[in-house]
Write a structure and sequence with these properties.
Order of helices and strands: HHHH
Strand content: under 5%
Number of helices: 4
Number of domains: 1
Structural class: mainly alpha
Length: 96
């Protein structure tokens, strides 16, 4: 799990990174903001070049649109909550 291996790796131009040693490679500190921004993907970061990963922030915005308008809905709060859940999952995978 999270070791940079996937069934689709043969068709990818760039191999997915191993997620478990991120904190270790960053001086023991998990790079939360960088991980969040990478997953969100709505901010275009020129230095990153072409994106192989889907832009989840945009997808979560579309998925989160309310079916019924009988309750208050904040799309940014919905997107943040979904992405923070993924970030927390990756954080829990970190090697000790």
């Amino acid at each position: 799990m999270a070791r940079g291996q996937t069934q689709a790796q043969d068709i990818l131009k760039v191999a997915p990174p191993e997620l478990r040693p991120m904190a270790k490679k960053n001086g023991g500190v998990f790079p939360m903001a960088r991980v969040y921004e990478t997953i969100d993907g709505r901010a275009n970061i020129k230095a990153h070049g072409m994106r192989e990963m889907p832009i989840w922030g945009q997808r979560y915005s579309i998925e989160g649109a309310p079916v019924y308008d009988d309750f208050p809905y904040n799309p940014e709060a919905f997107v943040r909550a979904r992405i923070l859940g993924v970030v927390e999952y990756i954080y829990r995978l970190q090697e000790k």
